Amino acid sequence: MTLGLIEPASGPLTGYCRVPGDKAISHRAAILAALATGVSSISGFSSAGDCRATLAALAALGADVRHLGGTVQVNGRGGEAAGASTSRVVDCHRSGTTMRLLSGVAASWQGVTVLTGDPQLLRRPMERVANPLRQMGAGVETEPAGRPPLRFTGGRLSGISFTSPVASAQVKSAVLLAGLRASGTTVVWEPIPTRDHTERLLIAMGASLSVVPSEEGTQIRVSRSSLRPLHLAVPGDASSAAVIMAAAALVPGSDVVLQGVSGNPSRLGLLQVLLRMGGSVEVSPEIGLESPEPTVTLRVRHAPLRGTSVSAAEVPLLVDELPLVGLLATQAEGATEVRGAAELRVKESDRIRGLVDGLRALGGDVEELPDGFVVEGPRRLGPARCDSLTDHRLAMTFALAGLVAAGPVEVSGLEFVEDSFPGFLECLDRLR
Ligand code: S3P
């Protein structure tokens, strides 16, 4: 693991920056393209390590995947696995999305399919997807304590009505993908909305899927469908853009423009929280070809920040950005409280623990809660050494702390930013 050194910013961050293609959309576009019949083309595909893991997994399963510059072409064969009766072992590397989404696909295959990955991924909970897939009729085994590898032994799937005990777009997506192969209708209830990329892309590809919002939540219904190929320009990653937004909000005098960013409302939770904290962000919709996924330009300027509260209902809309909220809170006047975010403990690391430890090392005033944290600000952050716990989101959060600290911040495992945001340091350098 390497130590990265981030020096304090000597002046405002200014200028333009482009972030890589959205990771969540890229994963889904590639998987759905492999389930379609015909040639799909996906431009602006994310260069993140996690999305490379999805492409490699699909190729290992026999999909015809080609790279033409930044465009990925997938010649889909209706989602049939190669070697139907043999045993397949698929390496999902460090990507939870790859493993959970592919679970929904592997559930209906004949023969044995094993989904495995790096030690970091092997610690993550998988019963949340295994359970509903078993209810649908799939043979699924997990390791003791519900961890990967996941072993699928096939089965005839039937539709179920399912409410996930955790608000998770990955779990929802796994069930919807299995629903494409199940007899009858599969219904997913979401009391709290999560990112809706799977639904948007499935509708664009002609799946028989409907989304019905109501007072009690959202009902998504899907039934057996074949998919037509997808032609998609992936917008810039909303979570990577959030990192740059946070940087501009933190460094005095900054004025930064981000073009071509995903404007999907289910991903803009950090924007809403930042505005509530007094942040200055202008959002302009980009007019372009009709796409299932909207794109916006963001202009972010530094402004004095005040504390806020983030509630459980809001958490899925910024689940990956909550470490950034913790850092922003150290520079905001008053208290910031995040609750209802126990899911952070089972991400690439225990992000509550990792964040609290890192912010305390930096001199932050932080209280750890079982399902969140409270930060009292503002505090002058000192030079420090912060441990990313090999987690890309924590690594980027601590790197931003370096921009506003009184001295350099050393971040262990800064190389893991590649999991989601290749070019992160170059992007910051361009703005400095
Ligand atoms: C993701 C959903 C979120 C998020 C993860 C990506 C997705 O996980 O934390 O980084 O692409 O669906 P959960 O759905 O498990 O909350």
Plain-language structure description:
Helices cover 29% and strands 29% of the residues. The protein is α/β, with parallel strands linked by helices. It has two domains: 3-21 and 235-431, UDP-n-acetylglucosamine1-carboxyvinyl-transferase, Chain; 23-233, Enolpyruvate transferase domain (UDP-n-acetylglucosamine1-carboxyvinyl-transferase, Chain), CATH 3.65.10.10. Helix 1 (23-35) packs parallel to helix 2, helix 1 (23-35) runs parallel beside helix 3 and helix 7 packs parallel to helix 11 (392-404). It binds shikimate-3-phosphate (S3P). Shikimate-3-phosphate (S3P) binds at residues 24, 97, 168-170, 194-195, 319-320, 343. Shikimate-3-phosphate binds next to helix 5.
Please render the helix and strand layout as text.
Layout (H helix, E strand, L loop, with lengths): L2 E4 L7 E4 L5 H13 L1 E7 L5 H12 L3 E5 L2 E7 L9 E5 L4 H11 L5 E5 L10 H9 L4 E4 L3 E6 L8 E3 L5 H11 L5 E6 L6 H8 L3 E7 L2 E7 L7 E3 L4 H13 L4 E8 L6 H8 L3 E6 L9 E7 L3 E2 L2 E2 L11 H9 L1 E7 L12 H11 L3 E5 L2 E6 L6 E4 L4 H13 L4 E4 L11 H8 L1
Parallel strand pairs: 2-15, 3-14, 6-7, 10-11, 18-20, 19-20, 23-24
Antiparallel strand pairs: 1-24, 3-5, 4-5, 7-9, 8-9, 11-13, 12-13, 15-17, 16-17, 20-22, 21-22
Helix pairs in contact: 1-2, 1-3, 1-6, 3-5, 4-5, 7-11, 9-10
This protein binds shikimate-3-phosphate (S3P).
